[in-house]
Write a structure and sequence with these properties.
This protein has 64 residues and is of the alpha+beta class. It is built from 1 helix and 3 strands; from the N terminus they run H-E-E-E.
Amino acid sequence: MKIKAVLVVLIISAFLVELHPQVATLDATFGLNSESGIYIPFQNGMPVPSFEKQNRTTISLGGV
């Protein structure tokens, strides 16, 4: 019976050790800069591109 109790305590202890949160040591590289009231995402000092369709004149290269 004592062995079961010791095993239960060891198992619970192992899970409790894993529950401690980790602390980040690196600075964030992503941020938002405001330009004329519009927020632009930046990462590593460069604007992050958007892959959404842009509202501008385009030429179809798909043929006639």
